[in-house]
Amino acid sequence: MSTATKNHIGRKISRIRELRDMKQEALAAVLGVSQQAVSNIENSETVDEVKLEEIAKALGVTAEGIKQFSEEAVFNIISNTYHNTSSDTSTLIASSLNYQPTFNTVEKIVELYERLLQAEKDKVAYLEKLINNK
């Protein structure tokens, strides 16, 4: 992977948006721009810092999170979460029942819930601000 591809902010924004299960139209609505503008941003290698902050807020991440985002990190998290080396389904069921993560799953679920809730609160506040300014 080339350096240009690794630092292509637009592609990172696109990928994070997809992982958040958000369509370009939805991101455009939150940002107050057209879907075509979002498409242009996602095709841009660089993004203005102020715009990046707005996009990060809309996606529920930080601007630094977008800059540092990598597919490899996501795949590593996924692959390190669950391992199955057996093709025998009875062993698969037994191993999945005995799976012990190295982190407190309840804390992670609560942490994720709180982050999602805060992201939604931020979106509502942003949309209310847009409505009040009209």
From TrEMBL:
Originating organism: Flavobacterium zepuense
Record keywords, A-Z: DNA-binding
SMART domains reported in the protein's UniProt record: HTH_XRE
UniProt keyword DNA-binding present: yes
Gene3D superfamilies on file: lambda repressor-like DNA-binding domains
Superkingdom of the organism of origin: Bacteria
Domain HTH cro/C1-type: start-end pairs: 13-66
PROSITE patterns: HTH_CROC1
SUPFAM superfamilies recorded: lambda repressor-like DNA-binding domains (SSF47413)
Pfam family name, one: HTH_3
Signal peptide residue numbers: none
Protein name according to UniProt: Helix-turn-helix transcriptional regulator
Keyword DNA-binding: yes
PANTHER family assigned to the protein according to its UniProt record, in alphabetical order: DNA-BIDING PHAGE PROTEIN, TRACRIPTIONAL REGULATORY PROTEIN-RELATED-RELATED
Taxonomic lineage: Bacteria, Pseudomonadati, Bacteroidota, Flavobacteriia, Flavobacteriales
Any GO molecular function: DNA binding
